Recover the amino acids of this structure.
């Protein structure tokens, strides 16, 4: 039985550039950095940056990070001022900013939770929706 998410590893082509993006722009906490990688955290999430050939997904797969509603406007402004590219406009419940990291990995900065998403689905169900609660 799985207990939850342990960590996420992202391949990055330039460790210093990726480290600066995730720490200085996104505000992650650095814990360790070495020639081939780095360990960062955001809340309980452990993120590993691994120096390797980066091949970002071309599909909808992405990593969504949680942010408090009160912090969202400053994050949006910070990322916009830094010229971070967006890959999608938000059409779902809760504020979201869909951005690309320096290697083109798709990220989402999201205000909300599973519970807020399920509440919104009860109000405006997706086609063929089944709820299991």
């Amino acid at each position: 039985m799985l207990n939850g998410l342990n960590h996420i590893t992202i391949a990055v082509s330039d460790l210093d550039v990726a480290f600066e993006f995730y720490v200085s722009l996104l505000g992650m906490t650095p814990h360790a950095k070495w020639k081939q990688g780095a360990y960062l955290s955001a809340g309980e999430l452990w993120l590993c940056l691994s120096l390797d050939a980066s091949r970002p997904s071309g599909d909808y797969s992405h990593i969504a990070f949680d942010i408090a509603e009160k912090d969202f406007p400053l994050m949006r402004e910070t990322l916009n001022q830094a010229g971070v590219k967006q890959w999608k406009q938000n059409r779902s419940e809760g504020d979201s900013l869909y951005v690309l990291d320096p290697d083109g990995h798709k990220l989402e900065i999201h205000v909300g939770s599973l519970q807020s998403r399920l509440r919104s689905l009860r109000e405006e169900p997706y086609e063929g929706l089944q709820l299991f609660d």
In short: The chain has three helices and eight strands. Residues 54 and 115 are 33 Å apart (CA to CA). The longest strand covers residues 45-51.
